[in-house]
Amino acid sequence: MSLLNCHSYSFYYMNRNILIGFATFLLIFASCTTQKQMVYLQNIDSAKAPDFFPNKQVDYQIQNQDILYVKVSTLNEEVSNVINNTSSSVSQQNLYQTDASLYVNGYSVDKEGDIEMPVLGKIKVSGLTLKQAKDSLQLRADKYLKDATVILKLLSFKVTVVGEANHPGVYKNYNNQLTVLEAVGMAGDVSDYGDRKKVLVLRPEKEGVRTYRIDLTSTDILKSPAFYLQPNDMVYIQPLKNKTFKNNMPSIQIFLTGITTLILVLNFIKK
């Protein structure tokens, strides 16, 4: 190989490496997720942001197909067992151990918005808050029973987290309230490809489905009606715009390497 060809080969080989390195740098830079994209409630410490946000939680209204836990206690144990469909404290403890037992042993709100209980009969609960439904059941129990105490809880409080979460799925909540941040935490936080600024909450209502757009990086979510989730809400975390680019980056790198290698070979043959 002549000295000229040797110099040409070295020149093109050096340019090839520079081109590949520069292209790789651009690919990595374009696909980077900045720290600012990952921080929640970014303006919480700003001078204009208040340090107190009023609670805007709305009491949930019972809907058709909800499943309720109802227990009526009286001084007469036999009457209590008849009403509660149980004959002993041991069997009562085992009634609600699985999702299937919750459905079988809980009281499902029918399409007319009623639940039907032994002795007490049908009671309208749809459209009522849990407290209002409890008070209604208490009034009915007082008509037939002496010194009755009613306990009512919602068994079907579940939310669904889909999209760019580390562990998307359906999650049960055994509390009276659940925030969107808690739901995201249940789902293992937002994934590396998730856009915290673009989260959609879908809320089934009697008239249809209401949607809320929220930004987890802003304190505005603390004032949003979607901050406190309601039963059957769905949280959808959208992907970042550069997710597809990130996924395809290895293929792009291979393609660029092939192109530069081809250019080098063609120039070497030409020389």
The coarse overall form would be elongated
Find the count of extended strands (DSSP E, 2+ residues). Answer: 12
Hey, roughly how much beta strand do the residues contain?
Answer: 15-25%
Question: Numbering strands along the chain, what is their spatial order in the largest sheet?
Answer: 7-6-12-9-10
**What string, H for helix and E for strand, traces the elements in order?**
HEHHHEEEHEEEEHEEEEH
The mean pLDDT is 79
Q: How helix-rich are the residues, as a percent range?
A: 25-40%
What is the count of DSSP helices, taking H or I runs of 4+ residues?
Answer: 7
Largest sheet: 5 strands, mixed
Low-confidence stretches: none
| Class inferred from helices and paired strands | alpha+beta
Radius of gyration: 31 Å
N-to-C span: 11 Å
Task: Explain this structure.
The chain is of the alpha+beta class and 271 residues long. Helix content is 36%, strand content 22%. The protein has seven helices and twelve strands. Helix 1 (3-31) packs antiparallel against helix 7. The chain starts with a helix and ends with a helix. The model has no long low-confidence stretch (mean pLDDT 79).
